Amino acid sequence: MMFLRGLFLTTGVFVIGVGFVLLVAPQSYFQLYATAYAPGMDFPARRFSPAVLALGAVLIAARDLAPGRFLRALCLITALAFLGVAGTGLTAWWSGIARLHILGAVALELVIAVLFLLAAWRKRRF
Question: Which of 12, 42, 92, 124 lies in disulfide reach of 60, CB 3.0 to 4.6 Å?
Fold first, then answer.
């Protein structure tokens, strides 16, 4: 259970960090990953940031949940979310929209997804 607690806490803090960057400095996010940046891109990032911050808060709060169906489902949902984000990163790189830096983010997102999938399938813990 300690692994799961750490996974939820670490991922939640990471997600809140990303959400904070999207809220206060979206241009830095886009300049790191996008091949082209336009100031108008800031609006959707700032608008989406509260949802990212909320996801981080949910993950941090979930670290203390008792093992069971809900926690297993949350692990699976989180894994699928990170697989989706990794997929959009790969697609953006293949299409030339994203810089090579995105592959580092994709690798991290895939590791997080795999860890949550493993956590969801560890039946002896749930």
Answer: 12
